[in-house]
């Protein structure tokens, strides 16, 4: 059983390397970098928009905070 698992791992590595080599031969690095840069810019814009939306909501909302003995440190009553 151990030998077959080791063989499967070796075959999987070989296939993974072969696929990576095919991708490297067919796709230019410029295309890959361009896609990564645009993706990171879009994700950054989405994060900023989400942060702005949350801040606007929290600033405009009326919030209340309820405290009781169970919320104090180790249930200390004052």
What does this entry show, briefly?
With 78 residues, the chain is mainly α. The chain has helices spanning 2-26, 29-60. Helices cover 73% and strands 0% of the residues.
Explained architecture:
It comes from Trichinella pseudospiralis (Parasitic roundworm). This is Zinc finger BED domain-containing protein 5. The chain has about 80 residues and is mainly alpha-helical. It has one domain. The protein has two helices and no strands. It is elongated. The N and C termini lie far apart (about 65 Å). The relative contact order is 0.05. The model has no long low-confidence stretch (mean pLDDT about 75).
What labels would you give this structure?
78 residues; mainly alpha; Zinc finger BED domain-containing protein 5
Note the overall shape. Answer: elongated
Q: From the alpha-carbon coordinates, what is the Rg to the nearest angstrom?
A: 27 Å
Q: What letter string, H or E per element, gives the SSE order? A: HH
What is the average per-residue confidence, as pLDDT, rounded to a whole number?
75
Structural class: mainly alpha
Terminal CA distance:
65 Å
* pLDDT < 50 runs, ≥5 residues: none
Return the domain count.
1
Organism: Trichinella pseudospiralis
Protein name: Zinc finger BED domain-containing protein 5
Q: What secondary-structure arrangement, pairings included, does this model have?
A:
Blueprint: H1 2-26, H2 29-60
Organism: Trichinella pseudospiralis
Protein name: Zinc finger BED domain-containing protein 5
């Amino acid at each position: 059983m151990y030998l077959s698992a080791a063989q499967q791992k070796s075959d999987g590595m070989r296939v993974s390397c072969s696929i990576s080599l095919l991708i490297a031969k067919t796709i230019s690095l410029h295309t890959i970098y361009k896609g990564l840069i645009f993706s990171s810019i879009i994700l950054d814009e989405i994060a900023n928009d989400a942060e702005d939306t949350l801040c606007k909501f929290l600033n405009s909302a009326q919030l209340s905070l309820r405290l009781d003995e169970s919320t104090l440190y180790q249930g200390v009553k004052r």
